[in-house]
Amino acid sequence: IKRQNIDILNINVAEITDQYMAYVELMESSQFELAAEYLVMAAMLAEIKSKMLLPRQEDLEAEEEDPRMELIRRLQEYERFKNAAAQLDELPRMNRDYHRAVAMPPKLERVTIDPEVDLKEVLISLAQVLRRADMFGSHQINRETLSTREKMSELLVRINDKKFVPLSSLLIREEGRLGVVVTFLAVMELLKGSMIEIVQSEPFAPIHVKAKTLSEQPILSSDFDDDQETDQEAVQ
Fold it and tell me: Which domains are delineated in the chain?
């Protein structure tokens, strides 16, 4: 219809049918499915042609629809779909009008530049570190070695008021366990030398200690000195 510039509303059905049938005969040899679709259209054209050739009654002519209108509607619908397909085909298409760019990113190497350091700044930082080190400095204090002889003299001074004192009051907490042992040995040595007096009112009652007077104390012998040195070595 477009090739011969025919008005679609005024179709010569006989001419179009002959041309269409000739085209179908050419298509039958290769594409059967397409030829079948064309045969449907050819049958409709033949029906229209037969209706156009048959005489019609005048009273029914006004009521009946022109048999060519169905063909016209189909051709108009076909033209709309064809135009829509052409418009879709004009849209940009991947791998036809443009292609996806594939590019590997460049390998970047980060170069770190060493900062310039002034010798004066280094010395200032060193001085600050040394000052902080002095703030947190520490030293270890070693505990003095306890002597049984010195503890004996200390006990005699503390109980030299001629009164009984509890044995527990003679212990010094800061001296720890070693101080308790040395104090106990000193008391035993003083008791052995008859330089102190120990009393206990009942079993498991507190023990009290009192120093004897000079007239009551015997003279210390050399054996006593040797025993003191032996006890001191044992404590150490």
Answer: 13-90 (no CATH), 148-235 (1.10.10.580)
| Residue type at 138 in one-letter notation | S
- The CA–CA distances, whole Å, from 100 to 27, 91, 94, 96, 97 equal 40, 16, 8, 11, 10
The answer to whether the pTM exceeds 0.70 is no
pLDDT digits (tens, 9 = 90+) for 128-170: 877 877 777 666 766 667 788 998 998 888 888 778 888 888 8
Q: For 1-33, give the DSSP string.
A: -TTTT--TTS--HHHHHHHHHHHHHHHTTT-HH
**Tokens (6 digits) for 6:** 């025919």
Tell me the residue length of the chain: 236
Phi-psi region of 7 (alpha: psi -120 to 50; beta: other; left: phi over 0): beta
CA 187 distance to own-chain centroid: 68
**Strands ordered across the beta sheet of 165-166:** 165-166, 208-211, 196-199
* Cα(233)–Cα(8) distance, integer angstroms: 136
Q: Using CA atoms, how far apart are residues 166 and 157, in angstroms rounded to an integer?
A: 15
